[in-house]
Protein: Succinyl-diaminopimelate desuccinylase
Amino acid sequence: MSVTDRLCDEIDARRDDLIALTQDLIRIPTLNPPGENYRDICVFLEKRLRASGFEVELVRAIGSPGDCEKYPRWNMVARREGSVAGECVHFNSHIDVVDVGLGWTVDPFGGVLKDGKIYGRGACDMKGGLAASIVAAEAFLAVCPDFAGAIEISGTADEESGGFGGVAYLAEKGYFTPERVQHVIIPEPLNKDRICLGHRGVWWAEIETFGEIAHGSMPFLGDCAVRHMGAVVSEMEDSLFPALALKRTDMPVVPEGAKQSTLNINSIHGGQAEGDADFTGLPSPCVPDSCRMIIDRRFLIEENIDDVQEEVMALLRTVEGRRETFRYNVQELHRVLPTMTEKSAPVVQVVARAIEATMGKEAQYVVSPGTYDQKHIDRIGKLKNCIAYGPGILDLAHKPDEYVGVDDMLDSAKVMGRSLIELLAKPGDAA
Structure:
């Protein structure tokens, strides 16, 4: 029996363990924001991976956004050295999950197993992928204990809020340099037969319009900032949204709607703040003198970030020319440039062959509509040989009744294990 056949049998034999591991991870509610239970899940992973022979570090991202004594940003990095020198394969998964939201029919942190699916917040995004990478690595070690190089597995913080307390911090500390790590696989839920090469760019900004406060019964004595913001939104509807719909990319972005440039109005807040939930009084009658809007602009690899910003600034100047008392301010909140690994990159080719061998079909190549932690590995770590590949259906991420299929996790684990064999197994072992 070949080493690949033994690996696949080993993974199949670990089905119950894979299910239990995924359930255990889901049952640690690592909600972000605010960043709950990060240390708990890192300690859980540390115990698991030390038992498999990994050296483990817990790294707190001191001073990163959100890091504080109540909600410290903890990360886990595990490394298992082979018997001889070679390349390092790193599996990186984020440990945080988004808010539960409404509409669940099962306990979002129960890890319910039903009809071959494990339900829970973070099941597909991406604790199922984290569990699959651990089982894949452990199965590989069982059949190739005398391998070359090194395996790393990380569980990192804050991907859902930019990754600055996780992969960005680790990259700045040298954990993702080409000298230390040669291949990175991020088990995000892009479907088990697809390789994600990268992602679109993002520009977040806050636009604030200003007015003058006055009594609500005499609004003509004031200047309504909300009306000014309404003019901004109207101009977006009339000119910016149609222009963005015409911008198309050659990147293989999924789903189809993301092949164009997009802009989301993330929030608008104007006038008085809403009262606490237990406040039963009425608001005071005032003309709002400030209105703030946060925009989320996703752009294509063919676009320039300066042009992306200028489109918004030009729109505001247009509104300014039409409204006598229009005053505004723009503050950039966040920017990420698009990134896309070449199809010819070694990790892409290896995983593609593993997908075809496991599932009997050619791998599909896609680009994510939103960003993920590849951006930090690319820009800070200067490591280009990085992809996202993992189990789960992208459309289920952040939705109620999120789930991951057990068979999908097993297949993805086999793809990851086969990739380890090709990259790290010594010639005699890989026969």
User: Anything to note?
Assistant: The domain at 3-199+338-424 is CATH 3.40.630.10 (Aminopeptidase). The first helix runs from residue 3 to 13.
